[in-house]
Amino acid sequence: MSRPPASPGEPCAYEGDAVLTHGRWHDLAGRLASALAGYGLGRGDRIAVRMRTRLEWMVVSLALGKLGAVQVAVNYRLTPPEAEHILRDCGVRAVIADDGDLTPLLRAWEHLGLRAVVGVDGPGTDGPPAGGLAAGPRAPEAVSLPALLERTPAGEWPEGTFAPMVVYSSGTTGAPKGAPLGGWNNRPDPRVLADYLASTGFDGASGGRGNRTMITLPMHHGAGPASVRTAIRTGGSAHFLRRFDAEAALALIERSAITHWSSVPTMLQRIMKLPGHVRDRYDVSSLRFLSAGAAPVPRELKDQVLDYFGEVLHEGYGCTEAGMISGCLPADHRRKPGSSGRPFRQVEVRILGEDGGILPPGRTGEIAVRTPAVISGYIGRGPLGPDQLDGDGFYRTGDIGRLDEDGYLFISDRRTDMIIAGGVNVYPAEIEAVLLRHPAVALAAVFGIPHPDAGEQPIAVVERQPGAALTGEELIAFCEGRLARYKWPRRVEFVDALPVNPMGKIEKRRLREPYWRGRDRAV
C-alpha cells in the first residue's frame, strides 16, 4: 500500500514536543546528504548508524537514501571494541552516532580509515576542511550534525526514500554476520513480492492513511525501521518514544490517539504489570493494531493483552535471513493458543526430521521456509551453503516446531543456543569467550533461563581452575568494558565439573532442562 505525495507542511514525525514536517524532513536530509558528499561519500558506500529510537533517525536514513549509500545498523549498546568488528566486516566508511561522548569511538576506531564520525547531538567540527580531504587512511574527526545541517545547503537531490539496510545477525558461533535486507536469493516476481508484503502487513492492518504509529523498537533491528517505513509510506506519522517506559507508552497512546504499535513481549509484560488503577487512567481505545514479535508471547500474556487492549493483537514470526514467515491474527489467539499463526501468502513451511526428510502434520522437527525474502548470503561470506539453503530454496531456520492439521505453526525449541532477552538477541559464545579470559575460569557455559519480564536472561555455569577462588560478583564485574551490559550474565553458578559429551562439547541441554521443565515452550 502506498499513498499520494504528502504536502510539505504535513507532519510526518513527532518526538516529545518536536514535530517534523515532510518539507522539513526532505530539506534536512538534503543538507546531510550534501555534507556527507563533501566527505567523499557517495553511492554504494556503507555508513554505520548507531542511534537510539529517535526522530533524527528518519533524517539520517532519508539522507543516506538520497546519497545512494547503504545504512549499516549498529546497536548503540555495543562497546566500541565490539562494534569494531561490524565496521571492519562491512567496510564502513563513516559513522553517524548519538553517543554523548564521541571520544571512545574516535580512539577505538582511529585506525579504520573512517572519513568522519558524525555526532547527532554534537560536538564536533562544522564540516569537511576547506580544499577537501586528503586521500588515504586518516584518523576520523568528530563532526557535529547540528552544525552540518545549519551550514550546508540542501543542494539538488532526488526525492529518495529510506536507505537500504544491513543488519547483523549471528549463527551458533556468535560471530556477527551482516545480512542485507532485500538481498534476495532469487529476485522475486514483482507481483509475488507485492502479495507477500501485503500479507506480512496483515493486508493493510499494519498501516493505512492517517495512521499514528508509536515507535518503541530499536533502530538497529529490522522491525523498528520497518514500522517507520510502513507508517510513512501508507500515509501516516511516526511517534517516537526514545526510552520505553510502560506508563509513558500508555500516556502517548492516549495523548496522540495512537492507532498502531509494534512491540516485543517484554514491553507488553511491563504494561500488564502496572497496577490496574494506573492502566485504567489511560484511554487506549484508539489503538487498532498491536503487533508483538522477536520472542515468543506467553499464552497468559496474550490473554491479558487481549482483555486490556481489545481484539487488536497480531503476532509475527520471522528471521533476518528469511523475512516474515507466519502471522497470528487476533481471532487465532484463543482458537489456537500457543500458535505462531499460519504462514503468510507466498511462504512455504516444511518440518524436517533428523534425516532431512519432510515430516507430516503433528510431528516436531526443524522449521525450513521458502519465502520471497530469503537472503542470498551474508556480507563478505559468499552465498548461503547447502546446510542453510537447500536446492529447493528452503532456508533452515534452526528453530524447532510443528504444523497442525489446519496449517498453524507451533514453535517449541531452537537448535541454536541464542538467548532472546527482552526481544534482543544475546549470543552465549560471545559471553563465554569473555568469561574464559578470566584466569580463574576453566570452562564456562552460558544459556538462557526463564524470566517473567524479559522472557529469558543469561546465566553462566562455570568450572573454576583448580585451587582458584572466584565469586559470581567478581566474574560479572569482569565483563565491564568487555561486553555491553545487556549481555552480562544475571547469575553465575559454580560446579566441580561441567557435563561434556564424548566429543568434548559441553552439554548445555542438560544444564538448561531443570529451568525449563514444565514450560509450554522450551526456548
From TrEMBL:
Task: Give start and end of each AMP-dependent synthetase/ligase domain.
Answer: 8-378
Q: Name one Pfam family in it.
A: AMP-binding_C
Look up the domain of life of the source.
Bacteria
| GO MF | long-chain fatty acid-CoA ligase activity; medium-chain fatty acid-CoA ligase activity
UniProt entry keywords in alphabetical sequence = Ligase
Q: Does the keyword Ligase apply?
A: yes
What EC designation does it have? 6.2.1.3
Q: Which residues form the AMP-binding enzyme C-terminal domain?
A: 430-505
Keyword Ligase present in the record's keywords: the answer is yes
Q: Which InterPro entries match?
A: AMP-bd_C, AMP-bd_C_sf, AMP-dep_synth/lig_dom, ANL_N_sf
Tell me its family.
Answer: Belongs to the ATP-dependent AMP-binding enzyme family.
Q: This protein is called what?
A: Long-chain acyl-CoA synthetase
Source organism of the structure:
Planomonospora venezuelensis
Organismal lineage: Bacteria, Bacillati, Actinomycetota, Actinomycetes, Streptosporangiales
